[in-house]
Amino acid sequence: MKIVPTFVKNLYAFRYDGEALNELDRLLDLWNDLAYLTEFFVTYETHLGYFGVGAEEAITMTLHDVDELDEFLANLESSSRYSLELFFRPLNDFEYKAVPLSRQKAKRRKSWLRLYAIKIDAEHFVITGGTIKLTHRMVEMEPTRNELAKLEKCRDYLQLNDVFDADSLFDLFTELGQ
Amino acid sequence: MENEKKLEKFLGLVTDEQSDGLAKLKWRIDNRPWLRRSQTIAISVLSTLRNNRAEGKQPGTQKELAEIMEVSPQQINKIAKGQENLTLETISRLEKALGILLIEVLASWRRDETEPVAESEDVPQIVSV
Predict the structure, then answer these.
(1) pTM to 2 decimals?
(2) ipTM of this predicted complex?
(3) Cα(A169)–Cα(A159) distance, rounded to whole angstroms?
(4) Strands A2-5, A11-15: parallel, antiparallel or unpaired by DSSP?
(5) Pick from A2, A100, A165: which is nearest to B17 by CB?
(6) To probe the interface with A, which of B31, B44, B46 has the most A CB atoms within 10 Å?
Protein backbone atom coordinates (compact mmCIF):
# COMPACT_ATOMS: atom_id res chain seq x y z
CA MET A 1 0.00 0.00 0.00
CA LYS A 2 1.11 3.51 -0.80
CA ILE A 3 0.16 6.99 0.27
CA VAL A 4 -0.21 9.37 -2.66
CA PRO A 5 -1.24 13.02 -3.03
CA THR A 6 -4.72 13.83 -4.32
CA PHE A 7 -5.72 16.85 -6.40
CA VAL A 8 -6.70 18.69 -3.18
CA LYS A 9 -3.82 20.35 -1.37
CA ASN A 10 -2.84 18.57 1.85
CA LEU A 11 -5.33 15.77 1.18
CA TYR A 12 -3.68 12.41 0.61
CA ALA A 13 -5.09 8.96 -0.10
CA PHE A 14 -4.02 5.37 0.23
CA ARG A 15 -3.59 3.34 -2.93
CA TYR A 16 -3.91 -0.32 -2.03
CA ASP A 17 -1.95 -3.15 -3.60
CA GLY A 18 -3.73 -4.44 -6.70
CA GLU A 19 -5.69 -1.20 -7.18
CA ALA A 20 -4.90 1.08 -10.11
CA LEU A 21 -6.37 4.14 -8.42
CA ASN A 22 -6.02 5.81 -5.05
CA GLU A 23 -9.08 5.60 -2.82
CA LEU A 24 -10.45 9.05 -3.63
CA ASP A 25 -10.23 8.56 -7.40
CA ARG A 26 -11.52 4.99 -7.13
CA LEU A 27 -14.58 6.01 -5.12
CA LEU A 28 -15.44 8.94 -7.38
CA ASP A 29 -15.30 6.55 -10.36
CA LEU A 30 -17.39 3.98 -8.52
CA TRP A 31 -20.05 6.43 -7.37
CA ASN A 32 -20.49 7.62 -10.94
CA ASP A 33 -20.88 4.08 -12.24
CA LEU A 34 -24.57 3.25 -12.68
CA ALA A 35 -23.92 -0.47 -12.96
CA TYR A 36 -22.15 -0.41 -9.59
CA LEU A 37 -24.81 1.76 -7.92
CA THR A 38 -27.57 -0.50 -9.21
CA GLU A 39 -25.88 -3.61 -7.87
CA PHE A 40 -25.20 -1.91 -4.53
CA PHE A 41 -28.75 -0.70 -3.93
CA VAL A 42 -30.36 -3.91 -5.16
CA THR A 43 -28.10 -5.88 -2.79
CA TYR A 44 -28.87 -3.62 0.18
CA GLU A 45 -32.46 -2.72 -0.75
CA THR A 46 -33.74 -3.94 2.62
CA HIS A 47 -31.80 -1.11 4.30
CA LEU A 48 -33.59 1.46 2.15
CA GLY A 49 -36.86 0.90 3.98
CA TYR A 50 -35.73 3.32 6.67
CA PHE A 51 -35.37 6.05 4.04
CA GLY A 52 -38.68 5.22 2.35
CA VAL A 53 -37.17 4.90 -1.11
CA GLY A 54 -36.60 2.12 -3.62
CA ALA A 55 -33.37 1.26 -5.43
CA GLU A 56 -33.99 3.52 -8.42
CA GLU A 57 -34.77 6.57 -6.30
CA ALA A 58 -31.76 5.79 -4.12
CA ILE A 59 -29.54 5.77 -7.21
CA THR A 60 -30.92 9.13 -8.34
CA MET A 61 -30.36 10.58 -4.84
CA THR A 62 -26.80 9.26 -4.85
CA LEU A 63 -26.06 10.83 -8.24
CA HIS A 64 -27.25 14.16 -6.87
CA ASP A 65 -24.95 13.70 -3.86
CA VAL A 66 -22.02 12.83 -6.14
CA ASP A 67 -22.63 15.97 -8.22
CA GLU A 68 -22.49 18.02 -5.04
CA LEU A 69 -19.37 16.21 -3.87
CA ASP A 70 -17.71 16.93 -7.24
CA GLU A 71 -18.51 20.63 -6.86
CA PHE A 72 -17.28 20.63 -3.29
CA LEU A 73 -13.98 18.96 -4.18
CA ALA A 74 -13.52 21.29 -7.17
CA ASN A 75 -13.97 24.24 -4.81
CA LEU A 76 -11.54 22.73 -2.32
CA GLU A 77 -8.99 22.28 -5.10
CA SER A 78 -9.28 25.80 -6.46
CA SER A 79 -9.74 27.88 -3.35
CA SER A 80 -7.88 28.41 -0.12
CA ARG A 81 -11.07 29.58 1.59
CA TYR A 82 -11.98 26.03 2.50
CA SER A 83 -10.34 24.13 5.31
CA LEU A 84 -10.05 20.37 5.36
CA GLU A 85 -10.94 20.48 9.03
CA LEU A 86 -14.40 21.74 8.10
CA PHE A 87 -14.88 18.81 5.76
CA PHE A 88 -13.75 16.04 8.03
CA ARG A 89 -15.11 15.38 11.45
CA PRO A 90 -14.24 12.74 14.00
CA LEU A 91 -15.56 9.29 13.17
CA ASN A 92 -16.58 8.80 16.74
CA ASP A 93 -19.41 11.26 17.31
CA PHE A 94 -18.52 11.27 20.97
CA GLU A 95 -14.88 12.15 20.44
CA TYR A 96 -14.53 15.52 22.06
CA LYS A 97 -10.79 15.98 22.24
CA ALA A 98 -8.02 15.82 19.70
CA VAL A 99 -6.63 12.32 19.50
CA PRO A 100 -3.41 11.55 17.62
CA LEU A 101 -4.16 9.88 14.28
CA SER A 102 -7.82 10.35 14.84
CA ARG A 103 -10.05 8.61 12.29
CA GLN A 104 -12.16 11.08 10.41
CA LYS A 105 -15.20 10.86 8.18
CA ALA A 106 -16.20 13.32 5.51
CA LYS A 107 -19.92 13.69 5.96
CA ARG A 108 -22.01 16.11 4.04
CA ARG A 109 -25.48 16.89 5.27
CA LYS A 110 -28.29 14.63 4.05
CA SER A 111 -25.85 12.51 2.07
CA TRP A 112 -25.08 8.86 2.67
CA LEU A 113 -21.76 9.04 0.89
CA ARG A 114 -18.82 8.66 3.25
CA LEU A 115 -15.12 9.27 2.80
CA TYR A 116 -13.04 7.98 5.68
CA ALA A 117 -9.68 9.46 6.59
CA ILE A 118 -7.01 9.64 9.21
CA LYS A 119 -6.11 13.06 10.47
CA ILE A 120 -2.39 13.72 10.58
CA ASP A 121 -2.74 17.27 11.87
CA ALA A 122 -5.24 20.11 11.49
CA GLU A 123 -4.48 20.59 7.80
CA HIS A 124 -3.32 17.17 6.63
CA PHE A 125 -5.60 14.18 6.11
CA VAL A 126 -5.16 10.83 4.39
CA ILE A 127 -8.19 9.05 2.92
CA THR A 128 -8.40 5.35 3.71
CA GLY A 129 -11.60 4.58 1.77
CA GLY A 130 -15.29 5.26 1.71
CA THR A 131 -18.70 3.82 0.99
CA ILE A 132 -22.44 4.45 0.98
CA LYS A 133 -23.59 4.26 4.58
CA LEU A 134 -27.20 3.17 5.04
CA THR A 135 -27.17 2.19 8.70
CA HIS A 136 -26.63 4.13 11.89
CA ARG A 137 -23.72 2.02 13.05
CA MET A 138 -20.85 1.02 10.82
CA VAL A 139 -20.82 -2.54 12.11
CA GLU A 140 -24.36 -3.16 10.82
CA MET A 141 -23.47 -3.44 7.14
CA GLU A 142 -20.67 -5.25 5.35
CA PRO A 143 -19.37 -2.29 3.28
CA THR A 144 -18.99 -0.08 6.35
CA ARG A 145 -17.50 -2.96 8.36
CA ASN A 146 -14.90 -3.31 5.62
CA GLU A 147 -14.14 0.40 5.85
CA LEU A 148 -13.60 0.11 9.59
CA ALA A 149 -11.10 -2.67 8.91
CA LYS A 150 -9.33 -0.51 6.31
CA LEU A 151 -9.13 2.38 8.78
CA GLU A 152 -7.48 0.09 11.31
CA LYS A 153 -5.11 -1.35 8.71
CA CYS A 154 -4.04 2.13 7.63
CA ARG A 155 -3.56 3.30 11.16
CA ASP A 156 -1.43 0.21 11.79
CA TYR A 157 0.61 1.08 8.72
CA LEU A 158 1.21 4.61 9.98
CA GLN A 159 2.07 3.32 13.42
CA LEU A 160 4.55 0.85 11.96
CA ASN A 161 6.15 3.75 10.15
CA ASP A 162 6.41 5.74 13.32
CA VAL A 163 3.74 8.32 12.52
CA PHE A 164 1.92 7.91 15.78
CA ASP A 165 1.96 8.37 19.52
CA ALA A 166 1.71 5.24 21.62
CA ASP A 167 -0.98 6.93 23.69
CA SER A 168 -3.30 7.00 20.68
CA LEU A 169 -3.70 3.24 20.79
CA PHE A 170 -6.27 3.42 23.52
CA ASP A 171 -9.05 4.52 21.27
CA LEU A 172 -8.36 1.82 18.73
CA PHE A 173 -10.89 -0.42 20.39
CA THR A 174 -13.19 2.04 22.07
CA GLU A 175 -14.23 3.42 18.67
CA LEU A 176 -14.99 0.09 17.06
CA GLY A 177 -18.65 0.24 17.97
CA GLN A 178 -19.26 3.18 15.65
CA MET B 1 5.66 13.17 19.38
CA GLU B 2 5.68 16.73 18.22
CA ASN B 3 3.26 17.49 15.43
CA GLU B 4 5.95 18.84 13.13
CA LYS B 5 8.02 15.68 13.41
CA LYS B 6 4.92 13.55 12.88
CA LEU B 7 4.02 15.50 9.74
CA GLU B 8 7.59 15.24 8.49
CA LYS B 9 7.53 11.47 8.92
CA PHE B 10 4.15 11.24 7.26
CA LEU B 11 5.26 13.31 4.26
CA GLY B 12 8.28 11.02 4.00
CA LEU B 13 5.87 8.14 3.34
CA VAL B 14 4.12 9.92 0.47
CA THR B 15 4.89 8.62 -3.01
CA ASP B 16 4.79 11.33 -5.63
CA GLU B 17 2.27 9.66 -7.93
CA GLN B 18 0.16 11.68 -10.35
CA SER B 19 -3.45 10.83 -11.12
CA ASP B 20 -6.04 12.06 -13.58
CA GLY B 21 -8.67 12.43 -10.84
CA LEU B 22 -8.94 16.20 -11.22
CA ALA B 23 -9.28 16.00 -15.01
CA LYS B 24 -12.06 13.41 -14.60
CA LEU B 25 -13.84 15.53 -12.00
CA LYS B 26 -13.72 18.65 -14.19
CA TRP B 27 -14.90 16.60 -17.16
CA ARG B 28 -17.90 15.36 -15.16
CA ILE B 29 -18.79 18.91 -14.12
CA ASP B 30 -18.41 20.27 -17.67
CA ASN B 31 -20.46 17.44 -19.17
CA ARG B 32 -23.07 17.09 -16.45
CA PRO B 33 -26.19 17.98 -18.51
CA TRP B 34 -25.83 15.08 -20.93
CA LEU B 35 -24.21 12.79 -18.36
CA ARG B 36 -27.31 13.11 -16.19
CA ARG B 37 -29.47 12.01 -19.13
CA SER B 38 -27.13 9.14 -19.91
CA GLN B 39 -27.31 8.06 -16.26
CA THR B 40 -31.10 8.24 -16.25
CA ILE B 41 -31.20 6.06 -19.36
CA ALA B 42 -28.81 3.58 -17.70
CA ILE B 43 -31.12 3.38 -14.66
CA SER B 44 -34.07 2.55 -16.94
CA VAL B 45 -32.10 0.00 -18.95
CA LEU B 46 -30.80 -1.82 -15.86
CA SER B 47 -34.19 -1.67 -14.16
CA THR B 48 -35.90 -3.16 -17.22
CA LEU B 49 -33.33 -5.95 -17.45
CA ARG B 50 -33.84 -6.69 -13.75
CA ASN B 51 -37.61 -6.78 -14.10
CA ASN B 52 -37.37 -8.98 -17.20
CA ARG B 53 -35.09 -11.36 -15.36
CA ALA B 54 -37.55 -11.59 -12.47
CA GLU B 55 -40.36 -12.38 -14.91
CA GLY B 56 -38.31 -14.83 -16.95
CA LYS B 57 -38.41 -12.58 -20.02
CA GLN B 58 -35.67 -11.69 -22.45
CA PRO B 59 -33.51 -9.68 -22.52
CA GLY B 60 -32.81 -10.20 -18.84
CA THR B 61 -29.07 -9.68 -18.93
CA GLN B 62 -26.64 -7.25 -20.54
CA LYS B 63 -25.32 -10.15 -22.64
CA GLU B 64 -28.79 -10.92 -24.02
CA LEU B 65 -29.37 -7.25 -24.74
CA ALA B 66 -26.06 -7.11 -26.61
CA GLU B 67 -27.08 -10.11 -28.70
CA ILE B 68 -30.46 -8.60 -29.61
CA MET B 69 -28.86 -5.27 -30.53
CA GLU B 70 -25.99 -7.02 -32.31
CA VAL B 71 -23.36 -5.05 -30.43
CA SER B 72 -20.55 -6.20 -28.16
CA PRO B 73 -21.23 -6.87 -24.45
CA GLN B 74 -18.57 -4.24 -23.77
CA GLN B 75 -20.70 -1.64 -25.53
CA ILE B 76 -23.72 -2.50 -23.35
CA ASN B 77 -21.46 -2.45 -20.31
CA LYS B 78 -20.43 1.12 -21.17
CA ILE B 79 -24.07 2.16 -21.57
CA ALA B 80 -24.91 0.55 -18.22
CA LYS B 81 -22.27 2.69 -16.52
CA GLY B 82 -24.20 5.80 -17.57
CA GLN B 83 -21.21 7.60 -19.00
CA GLU B 84 -21.79 7.14 -22.72
CA ASN B 85 -22.77 10.05 -24.95
CA LEU B 86 -25.47 8.04 -26.70
CA THR B 87 -26.60 8.77 -30.22
CA LEU B 88 -30.29 8.95 -31.07
CA GLU B 89 -29.76 5.81 -33.12
CA THR B 90 -28.42 3.88 -30.13
CA ILE B 91 -31.23 5.14 -27.92
CA SER B 92 -33.81 4.04 -30.52
CA ARG B 93 -32.22 0.60 -30.79
CA LEU B 94 -32.24 0.27 -26.99
CA GLU B 95 -35.92 1.23 -26.90
CA LYS B 96 -36.75 -1.34 -29.56
CA ALA B 97 -34.74 -4.12 -27.93
CA LEU B 98 -36.22 -3.45 -24.48
CA GLY B 99 -39.72 -2.49 -25.61
CA ILE B 100 -39.70 0.72 -23.58
CA LEU B 101 -39.62 4.46 -24.19
CA LEU B 102 -36.37 5.98 -22.93
CA ILE B 103 -36.65 9.60 -24.02
CA GLU B 104 -39.26 11.79 -25.59
CA VAL B 105 -38.85 15.17 -27.22
CA LEU B 106 -41.59 17.76 -27.15
CA ALA B 107 -42.32 19.22 -30.54
CA SER B 108 -41.56 22.95 -30.80
CA TRP B 109 -45.23 23.98 -30.64
CA ARG B 110 -45.63 22.09 -27.39
CA ARG B 111 -42.71 23.56 -25.44
CA ASP B 112 -44.77 25.28 -22.80
CA GLU B 113 -46.36 22.33 -21.06
CA THR B 114 -48.12 24.58 -18.57
CA GLU B 115 -50.33 26.06 -21.26
CA PRO B 116 -53.73 24.36 -21.47
CA VAL B 117 -54.08 22.40 -24.66
CA ALA B 118 -56.68 24.04 -26.88
CA GLU B 119 -59.09 21.88 -28.75
CA SER B 120 -58.23 22.28 -32.36
CA GLU B 121 -57.21 20.36 -35.39
CA ASP B 122 -53.59 21.12 -34.60
CA VAL B 123 -53.22 18.37 -32.09
CA PRO B 124 -49.93 18.82 -30.22
CA GLN B 125 -47.62 15.93 -30.82
CA ILE B 126 -45.04 14.24 -28.70
CA VAL B 127 -42.35 12.91 -30.94
CA SER B 128 -40.72 9.84 -29.55
CA VAL B 129 -37.27 8.87 -30.70
Answers:
(1) 0.82
(2) 0.81
(3) 9
(4) antiparallel
(5) A2
(6) B46
